[in-house]
Structure formats: structure tokens, C-alpha cells
Amino acid sequence: MSEAVSIRTLSALLLSAVGVAAWAVGVQSFEGMASAGLGLTAAGALLSLKRGDAARLARQWWPVGAFVGWSLLAPTLAGRPPSGSGLARTLDWLALPFAAVSWSQTAPQLRAAAGKLAAAVMLVSCAVAGFQHYGLWPIEAAFEPWKWTQLPFQRVYELVPGTTDRFMGGGLLFHRLKFAHVTSLGVIAAIVIAARSKPGTRGSWFALAAVAGLSVWLFPYARMAAVAMTAAAGVTLVRASAAPRRAALVAVGLAAVAASIVWFTPAMRERFATSFTAQGSGDRLELLETGWRAVVEHPITGVGPGQFRPAKFADPTTPTLVTDNAGKAHLQLLSIAAEAGIPGALLFLLMLGWIASRGWSSPLTVGALTFFALLSLAHDPLFQAPFSMALVGILAVGVTDARPKPP
């Protein structure tokens, strides 16, 4: 009996460790690996649960279950079931409690190894984004044999507006927004690790955060991501530092550096200037209008996760750029209300508030939620599977680390 328990325990620990590592690497490179890592992490947590633990876990994390349950069941019962992608990114949130269990049972040495592996992949992704930005990259046809990966290779050949030899880098994800959003979470994590590290290694982690942060500003031209990352990095610094006033001055310095990048880079300055025009903002006002029409037509149950399409709620004056949109209102909460109804949006806010209160003592939780909240004002970052999984993973780590350690 003890041997069986021992084998089960070892299997749970192994699955958790491998899953966490694959999850951390996959969200920065290959969605399939991230999904596999998420599954292995959940399996490791399930194996470690004893009789009665599952019910206790469900009670402890009830806001997560309430949001996921409503988002999937309410539209389905109304005859509007979720799409495959909508189902997947909604279920990502259900992985949160299992990821927290897996992280708590992963040995400190393996946690450190996973962190270093994720940091190495982030550096490689930033370097790749730099090569793509400056055109030091193979032609698009060179990636034909790799089409089976379904990575959007064509996205890194989009010219930066106003230039003829600069491209919007997308790193290992080959998508400028996915790269900017996921790397920004990596910057926040690196700051927290640096603040907790010994003086000998602290500088390396701060240097990593600086390199990754500059990469987000310089290569993908993702305006809102860069601004939100800078603000969230400042908040994280203040929360993680033993000298908050000094950290606040550093945060102001970061904002000044960011403003300088915009001011002294003509293409960046022009891109920010066009944010207030219809074309430069991607017709966001019209996108918001289609999302609002979806909420008005289906206020209680929504249209179902993954089923919102601006074209379905357009009027004769809606621009083609809006009707061709894959399914985002460019305001995260509005998109959730469109998909899961107003009750679903309220449950989403309840879940985030509960996570924030549970992980309030963790700078990682506060920083990640700050970034997500700011980014969600102009984007639907959860529409991107790598970011959806990355955010859940970061929050699971933050919430776990926020809990007082047992004696």
C-alpha cells in the first residue's frame, strides 16, 4: 500500500514539474506545448489529491467554477454552445486551482530550474523579434515546410507604418501582440524574482527584465501593451521592493525612458499619434458598437464563448475592417458580456476580485492583474491562447506564493 502511494506521489510530482516547464516554455513559443503542459500540470495535481480534497478545492475556488460554469452552461442551454476555441480559453481558468496545487508541490530547485528555462526562452524570443524587426530573417517561403505548426509566419513580414525596412517582430510566437503580451508578463515575473534574489544574482534578473521590456517597446510596435507593461512594471517594483519610495522613483524613470522612446523614434511617434484616428485605432468605436449590440440582443446568456463575430451585429455603415474581425470587441469585459451575458461579465469581475484578494500580498499577482486590467481597456488579450494560458499560470504562482507557508 505504501509502495503504491509512493509511486503515485512520485508520478504526481514528476507530472507537475514537467507540466510547469512545458507550460512556461509553450506560452512563449508553441501553443500545443503550452496546452500539453497545462494538461500535465492538472494531471499532477489530480494525482496528488486525496479523498475529499477535490470537493474542498472546488469550495475554495468557487468563484472560478461559477464563472466557468455560467459561461459554458448558460449559452449552451439557450441553444448557443461555445466554439472549440471559446471552450478552450474558458476552461483555461479551470486550470487555475490545479496549477496552484502543482506549483505548491513542486520542489524549490525545480521551480528555480523552470524559471531559468522560461527566462532563456524569453531571451531567445526577444532576440528573434529583433531579427524580424530589422529584416534579418529568412523569406516567408522558407517556412512553408513548417505550416503544419499553424504558426502565423506571415505576421512578421508586416511593415512598420511609415518605413520600408522595419517589420513588426513577433518573436517565437510569430505574432506581434502575442509576443508583446506574453513577454510583458515575463517582465513582471523577472522583476519579482529579482527583488527576491540574493545580491549576486539580482542584477541578472533585473537585466533580463530590462532587455525584455525594451524588446516589447522597440520590436512589435504594440502600443497599449508597451504602456500597460510599463505601468504594471512600476507597480510591481513598488510592491516587491523593500524600499518602496526608491522603487517609485525608479518607476517614474521607467516612464520617462518609455516616453523618450516614443519621442525619439519617428515611426513610433507617428503610430502613437494615429491612435486617436479611426484608421489608426482599427475602428475601435465601431467594434465596441457591435459588441454592445450583441449584449443588448442577448443580455442574460450571451452568444456563447467564441461565437461573437462583429459581422453578425454590424449595420450597413459598419466598415469592412470591422466585419472582417475574427471576434473581438477590443474591450475585454464587453467581449465577455457579449459571449456570456451580463451575469457572466459580473462573475468574471467577481473571480478577478477574489483572485486579487487571495493574492494581494504577492507582487506577482498584483503586477499581472494590473497589466491585464490596463491591456483589457483596448484589447481582448484572452482571445489569444498563449496569453490566456500564461495569465492563468502567473496568477496560480502568485496566489500560491501569497499564502503563508506551513511550519
Topology:
Blueprint: H1 2-26, H2 31-48, H3 53-60, H4 62-77, H5 84-91, H6 95-105, H7 108-133, H8 176-196, H9 199-218, H10 223-240, H11 244-264, H12 266-273, H13 284-297, H14 320-323, H15 332-358, H16 363-375, H17 385-402
Helix pairs in contact: 1-2, 1-6, 1-7, 2-6, 4-15, 6-17, 7-8, 7-9, 8-9, 8-10, 8-16, 8-17, 10-11, 10-16, 11-12, 13-15, 16-17
List its salient traits.
407 residues
Polypeptide structure, described:
It is globular and about 60 Å long. The model has no long low-confidence stretch (mean pLDDT 92). The chain is built from 17 helices and no strands. α4 (62-77) packs antiparallel against α15 (332-358) and α7 (108-133) packs across α8 (176-196). Helices cover 68% and strands 0% of the residues. It has helices at residues 2-26, 31-48, 53-60, 62-77, 84-91, 95-105, 108-133, 176-196, 199-218, 223-240, 244-264, 266-273, 284-297, 320-323, 332-358, 363-375, 385-402. The protein is an all-alpha fold and 407 residues long.
Q: Calculate Rg over CA atoms.
A: 21 Å
Low-confidence runs: none
Count of extended strands: 0
Alpha plus pi helix count: 17
Query: What is the mean pLDDT?
Result: 92
Main beta sheet: strand number and arrangement? Answer: none
Overall 3D form: globular
**Element pattern in H and E:** HHHHHHHHHHHHHHHHH
Going by helix content, strand content and strand pairing, the class is: mainly alpha
Fraction of residues in helix = 55-70%
Strand-residue fraction? under 5%
Distance between the termini: 28 Å
